Amino acid sequence: MRKLLFLIITACFLPLSAAVITPDKRWPNGSTLTVWFLDGTPDMQHIVKRAATTWSRFGNISFRFTRQKPDNGSHLRISFSRYDGTRFGAHSDIHDNTATMYLNSLASSHLSDDYKNRIALHELGHVLGFEHEYRHPHWPYGNHWLKQQQVSCQQRLSDEVSDAKSRCESVNRPLDAHTSWWFPYDDHSIMNYPTEAKWLEDRSHDLEPTLKLSALDKIAMAASYPFAHHQYIQSTSLPDSDSLLTNSISFINRCPYPVTVRFKATLSSQSNKLTSLYLTHLQQSDQYQLVSPSLHFKALTNNGLHQWSDDGDYLHYDISHWQGNHAQIPLYCSNS
Ligand SMILES: [Zn+2]
């Protein structure tokens, strides 16, 4: 009997419960993914459509939806008949008829629409290649939560497969900083789980569930699936970790308010050197040369409502994991 082999990435919405991406599990940039709804009511399907459209706003991936079997195959096949689980990232068996995603939570009468939207955004994040935030190489809260995830995963899978232990270990260990692309660790990422503080070292309060894409989720999507004008070199392979492919950066302000960006180290452009810049809505900055594979910056809207920083300190971006000789960093905020 065919087992549910991919049911290892689950949306844990029970009381216990950016972004990091596996680059070679991405779909080809610019893809339109065909989504075949195998069952479900129009209301459930609408939640998925809305979440997919949200991701599409921030990266170069789009979705096409159908309730009939598509002649040319399907990239996602969604059923609402079993507990939530998603096949991770890109795959090639587009002519199969079996589900690649289950979303039974969307049939629940006990969850709010906002929470169902969260679940759809989270599962679609896995489809795009985004990992759980608790596997981030810089996850700051110790290993208790990973061990707990390992235990609950084994309990779920032990009746279904014989190698539950190794499967669960493979999806619940910290990700290697050299084989994943990671953006700054983000408490607010849609890829994080709500988590009780008792599982978190050096943290006194719970991780609350995030209901929307965070600013860093949006930036990670934009960098992982760049629109054409971002000038990235397209490749599915990782760059040599010793070489700095991305040697210049620029910013674009996609927040509706003016933003001030401050750099920890002086950057240089063709015309000047600077430690800060001011950008109005949709304004692009000059291109600045990087002298190291790291970029430290913080940014703040002029009304003080949005900031991009790490507890008041500078955000640290390791640009060496990015591709292309130029990276444009969009400054999104929650209402972008
Ligand atoms: Zn998940």
Commentary on this structure:
One of its GO terms (biological process) is proteolysis. Keywords: Signal. It comes from Pleionea mediterranea. This is Peptidase metallopeptidase domain-containing protein. The structure is a single chain. The chain is about 20% helix and about 20% strand. By secondary structure, it is α/β, with parallel strands linked by helices. The chain folds into 2 domains: about 1-225, Collagenase (Catalytic Domain), CATH 3.40.390.10; about 230-330, Immunoglobulin-like. Strands 3-2-4-6-5 form a 5-stranded mixed sheet, with helices on one face. Strands 9, 10, 12, 13 and 14 form a 5-stranded antiparallel sheet that branches. A 3-stranded mixed sheet has the order 11-8-15. The longest helix has 17 residues, at about 40-60. It is globular. The model is unreliable at about 1-15 and about 230-245 (pLDDT under 50). The structure holds zinc ion (ZN). The site of zinc ion has 6 residues, from helix 2.
Number of domains: 2
Q: Any idea what the shape is? A: globular
**Distinct bound molecules:** zinc ion
Number of helices: 5
- CATH topology assignment of the largest domain: Collagenase (Catalytic Domain)
Q: What proportion strand?
A: 15-25%
Instruction: Report the biggest beta sheet as strand number plus sense, adding barrel if it closes.
Output: 5 strands, mixed
Distance between the termini: 47 Å
The secondary-structure class comes to alpha/beta
CATH level 4 superfamily of the largest domain: Collagenase (Catalytic Domain)
The radius of gyration is: 20 Å
Number of strands: 15
Helix content: 10-25%
Name given to the CATH architecture of the largest domain: 3-Layer(aba) Sandwich
Mean pLDDT: 84
Give the oligomer, counting copies of the same chain as homo and different chains as hetero. Answer: single chain
**Which stretches are low in confidence, meaning pLDDT under 50 for 5 or more residues running?**
1-17, 230-244
Q: Could you spell the SSE succession in H and E letters?
A: EEHEEEEHHHEHEEEEEEEE
| CATH class category of the largest domain | Alpha Beta
Instruction: Please give the order of strands in the largest beta sheet.
Output: 3-2-4-6-5
